[in-house]
Hints:
- By secondary structure, the protein is mainly α.
- It has helices spanning about 5-15, 25-30, 40-50, 60-65, 75-85, 105-110, 125-145; strands at about 150-155, 160-165, 170-175.
- It holds the Pfam family BACK.
- It comes from Alexandrium catenella.
Amino acid sequence: xxxxxxxxxxxxxxxxxxxxxxxxxxxxxxxxxxxxxxxxxxxxxxxxxxxxxxxxxxxxxxxxxxxxxxxxxxxxxxxxxxxxxxxxxxxxxxxxxxxxxxxxxxxxxxxxxxxxxxxxxxxxxxxxxxxxxxxxxxxxxxxxxxxxxxxxxxxxxxxxxxxxxxxxxxxxxxxxxxx
Length: 179
């Protein structure tokens, strides 16, 4: 928490390649910290993505960390778009009935973080720098997502979702969508 209270210390830790090897308890504690020096909750999603840069984390671990994202009406589209890109949320807001997605609906609708105000703990030049970084990260993500193949996730004969990353169980399959 407090040891990462300054933007410089925070960035030194979260930009370090070893960030992705930190234990989930440490990452979760960091992402829950009220004084986290971030410009918006969108940075929480970037930190989760960076932690999972090797795509080696389980869906349950990612859902656990997403509970640190403080949803309000203004940022709800951001978290919902992120979940749709993972194949966890359909366009109509439905969540596939899979055990590893327990809690996704509550995160998407904001009830998991009810009462917690979104963080915006930066001002002046730190805020401007953080916003520039966020724009760069979004552009990098957009480019990498355009390069990624999109798949349809089937449970038996039923479509469970679309996205880029899935955990498959028995009687489930992926079909690559046409570009």
